Amino acid sequence: MEGFTVWLTGLSGAGKTTIATLLASELERRGRLVEHLDGDVVRRQLSPELGFSRADRDSNIERIGWLASRCTRLGAAVLVSAISPYRETRERCRAMIEEFGGFVEVFVSVSVDECRQRDPKGLYERALAGDIVNFTGVSDPYEPPANPDLTLHTAREEPRQSAERALDKLSELGLVRPALGA
């Protein structure tokens, strides 16, 4: 079975990890080998020396992209949930991954205000107060995808609906088989 990567990008608190977790469960239920690369986890494990400058963010995302390309090469369904704020860096990751399989860019779209309301750690409030510098969407830019394969509007739909829409897109692209009875 051909490997592929679903790259979920969006602001902190947009719902990327929640959607990826739901997708992973369904893909595993359908018999796929799944690897979920969460931006926070990968940063902690592989990039603890990096800060949040543009160069450090790019390095972190490129490491995730390289790892995703290796897993894709081995036939896994890779789910990346990482802010990945810069278009150019996402495009470099796409190029690495597409050498070995499909790449599906999913924009998890939600406003900064909505993310701020959801934020259990209070990071947005701290960033708005100036206590956190280089915070994506507040004091550092987020460049939304120009032409994502799928846009999920998590302020208007529940996480399960978003995951189902992503699965439908994967089926449409021929990367997964439709669910039984679909």
Biggest sheet, spatial arrangement of strands: 2-3-1-4-5
- Name of the CATH homologous superfamily: P-loop containing nucleotide triphosphate hydrolases
**Span between termini:** 21 Å
Low-confidence stretches: none
Number of helices: 7
Instruction: Give me the CATH architecture, please.
Output: 3-Layer(aba) Sandwich
CATH topology name: Rossmann fold
User: Would you tell me the structural class of the helices and strands?
Assistant: alpha/beta
Rounded to an integer, what's the Rg over CA atoms? 16 Å
SSE pattern, N- to C-terminal: EHEHHEHEHHEH
Number of strands: 5
Q: For the report, how would you describe the main beta sheet?
A: 5 strands, parallel
How many independent structural domains?
A: 1
Look at the structure and give the CATH class: Alpha Beta
Which percent range describes the beta-strand content? Answer: 15-25%
Helix content: 40-55%
Task: Describe the 3D structure.
It contains seven helices and five strands; from the N terminus they run βαβααβαβααβα. The longest helix is centred in the middle third of the chain and has 20 residues, at 54-73. By secondary structure, it is an alpha/beta fold. The protein has helices spanning 16-29, 39-46, 54-73, 87-98, 112-118, 123-128, 159-172, and strands spanning 4-9, 34-38, 77-81, 102-109, 150-153. The chain is globular. The mean pLDDT is 94. It has a five-stranded parallel beta sheet, with helices on both faces. The chain has a single domain, classed as Rossmann fold (3-Layer(aba) Sandwich), CATH 3.40.50.300.
